[in-house]
Known about the structure:
Elements: E1 2-8, H1 12-23, E2 28-32, H2 36-41, E3 47-48, H3 50-58, H4 63-68, E4 70-72, E5 74-79, E6 82-87, H5 88-92, E7 96-98, H6 101-115, E8 118-121, E9 124-129, E10 137-142, E11 145-156, H7 164-167, E12 174-189, E13 199-203, E14 206-214, E15 217-225, H8 235-245, H9 248-251, E16 259-273, E17 276-277, E18 280-282, E19 288-289, H10 297-318, H11 322-349, H12 357-372, H13 374-385
Parallel strand pairs: 1-2, 1-11, 2-8, 5-13, 11-18
Antiparallel strand pairs: 3-7, 4-7, 5-6, 9-10, 10-11, 12-15, 12-16, 13-14, 14-15, 16-19, 17-18
Helix pairs in contact: 1-6, 1-10, 10-11, 12-13
This protein binds arabino-flavin-adenine dinucleotide (FAS) and P-hydroxybenzoic acid.
Amino acid sequence: MKAEVAIIGGGPSGLLLSQLLNKAGVATVILERASREHVLSRIRAGVLEAGTVAMLQEAGVGDRMAAEGLPHDGCFLTDDELMVRINFKELTGTSVMVYGQTEVTADLYAAQDAMGATIVHGVEDVVIHDADSSEPYIEYSVGGERKRLDCAYVAGCDGFHGVSRKTIPEDKRSEFERVYPFGWLGVLSRTRPAHEELIYANSSNGFALASMRSETLSRYYVQVPLSDRVDEWSDERFWTTLKSCLPSEVADHMETGPSIEKSIAPLRSFVSEPLRWGRLFLVGDAAHIVPPTGAKGLNLAVSDVHYLYQALIDAVKKGDKTGIDSYSERALLRIWKAMRFSWQMTTMLHQFDGEDSFAAQMRKATLYHLSQSETARRDLAENYIGLPF
Ligand code: FAS
Ligand code: PHB
């Protein structure tokens, strides 16, 4: 089989890249390890930056998002009873879109099917060969048969645990990491959201996030020790803990109900440089991971696609390599800014094991400063709605 661009990974970054390349007449093949059902069963990001909304519209997958997504003009950061509203619209002129990654992925799969794009599910033992040559190729197994895919370029969109990043020789890679000493226990429930806007809660009982997927589907998170297991958390324990972190004016009136999904995700900050090795380009979680506190993970994956897709079109269609030669440097500039913001939001809102009382006072002072300073709120808003591409 041949493709102009081979894409490893059929998550949001691989699908969006394929959609934009196919629209420009560049032939792709996506190799995805999981079944489509498994990919579409994942509950992940919930907030789309304005730039992500624009990219999805450009890719021709904006209709359902426009009809079912929830534009949000602001969010709250709280410190026990103190509620600070960050008014994105007033401070930046822009809003964000609350629309689940699961829906984005489903819309992209539907668009790819409509376009007749080639997506191979259930692949195993993917090996990227000769990425640093002019004729890279991929070997993989599917249905018990070993296959070969010849291509001009390879996009590594296979997430943190994929093969792409590890294809780059270790001595050519620089990795930067911060693993946080806690995780997020997430719950999805068919309940009315606790508030019409998101609430990031810093409290004496730890961090919590009140989010949503629609007006009847809520998404909540509480900070948990890394040693915790999901089966240690009954719904009742979850709701009690969540309410203990939220301001009482919210907690006293919120609707609770049975969880329909419950999972624990670890938090880490991670970047691998460079994003390119020969004709292999890393995209999204294959190259970087952010703690979800800044709502940047999915949005950064889209940001990488923004920098790569036109560069690949120019290289394939015109032999112009300017874009692919500058991809890594350009994408990393924005990646590091989002990395910083996500780290800042995480350290500002979470209790760290063994921290002293001074650290707790610094969190309180930061939230109080936000409540008093429009400049501080504008800085947070500019980062949250998404810095320019
Ligand atoms: P993905 O990991 O989504 O997709 C990679 C794809 O490659 C997967 O489908 C995988 O099956 C496939 N793959 C892996 N190895 C392969 C191989 N060897 N061969 C072929 N295919 C292979 N971000 C937020 O903004 N907010 C959140 O709340 C949030 N919550 C998250 C919770 C969890 C548990 C996780 C893991 C991530 C969360 N994220 C969140 C980040 C997440 O949304 C990612 O940023 C986003 O999925 C990135 O998309 P991709 O780069 O496409 O990677
Ligand atoms: C979510 O709704 O899943 C969500 C929203 C904002 C975040 C993280 C997760 O920062």
